[in-house]
Automatic annotation (TrEMBL), chain A:
PANTHER family, alphabetized: SULFUR CARRIER PROTEIN YEDF-RELATED
CDD domains documented for this protein: SirA_YedF_YeeD (cd00291)
Organism whose genome encodes this protein: Prolixibacter bellariivorans
Pfam families: TusA (PF01206)
Identification of the protein by name: UPF0033 domain-containing protein
Family: Belongs to the sulfur carrier protein TusA family.
Domain UPF0033: from-to ranges: 15-39
InterPro entries: TusA-like, TusA-like_sf
Taxonomic superkingdom: Bacteria
């Protein structure tokens, strides 16, 4: 997915995990994905660099679709579609 | 043909029986803050990856599970002395390197706060909420002069021997020793 397409996404749920370091964002993502339906999109905000690699790995394991990451200043947004 | 299918079915059953569970077994042996942090970060992270997590606390690590507020009854003198020399709970544990009589320790703690890294207390609390099991090695607990009465309140806390650890470890996809 292109950056433009990602930026245009209206997520069904936004998880702000910028206040936590590893493994905080991963735990927040796991908790939040239980609250959305299959096919819905979740956006995770994180400032923890490791999370950028962790979330896609977790998504693969759980069969969620990793849609991509958008860089902002000092943090980034990761987009997932629930399996 | 039919025989071959039966043979295959038998083999599949065998393979399924020996297949490792999506489970992490970890021996937590060290009693220093840095190593305990690593252990608890991996443990809580593993629950996020939907793994079952079983921790086996033994030797020095058990010190961190003592409750500062609790008093143990009926101890022998040497046990009392040994217990008094060892850390009592998470707030007492030191660093394995650069502790520098506590200066390094407080520097690390303030850096952790600044960088939003969860404290050992928070990680234990989170682990409890996420269903991480803690098994305390009964033999080493007694050896260190600790008793069950002085251990923290933790949801899935139990006491066991090496056999429990081994049978858990045997069926776990990941095994670690920290």
């Amino acid at each position: 997915m292109s950056q433009e397409e990602l930026v245009a996404i209206q997520a069904d749920k936004v998880v702000d995990a910028r206040g936590t370091a590893c493994p905080g964002p991963l735990l927040a993502a796991k908790k939040a994905i239980a609250e959305i339906k299959s096919g819905e999109v979740m956006e995770i905000l994180s400032a923890d660099e490791g999370t950028k690699k962790d979330i896609p790995k977790w998504a693969t394991k759980k069969n969620h679709e990793y849609m991509g990451t958008v860089e902002e200043s000092g943090f980034f947004k990761i987009y997932l579609r629930k399996a | 043909m039919e025989e071959k299918i039966l043979e295959l079915e038998r083999r599949i059953k065998q393979l399924e029986a020996t297949k490792k569970k999506d489970q992490l077994s970890m021996v937590v042996f060290s009693g220093e803050l840095d190593k305990l942090l690593a252990a608890m970060i991996i443990a809580t992270g593993a629950t996020a990856m939907d793994m079952e997590v079983k921790l086996f606390f033994t030797f020095w690590a058990i010190s961190a599970l003592r409750d500062k507020e609790k008093r143990a009854e009926k101890k022998e003198l040497t046990s009392k002395m040994f217990g008094a020399m060892l850390p009592k709970g998470t707030s007492d544990v030191k660093l394995s390197k650069m502790n520098m009589a506590g200066a390094g320790l407080s520097m690390l703690k303030s850096l952790m706060k600044k960088k939003n890294v969860a404290s050992l207390e928070d990680l234990l609390q989170t682990a409890g909420e996420l269903g991480v099991e803690i098994n305390i090695c009964e033999m080493s607990m007694n050896l260190m002069g600790f008793s069950k009465d002085e251990m923290i309140d933790y949801p899935k806390l139990d006491y066991c021997g090496v056999g429990t650890y081994l049978s858990d470890a045997e069926e776990s996809a990941i095994q670690l020793f920290i």
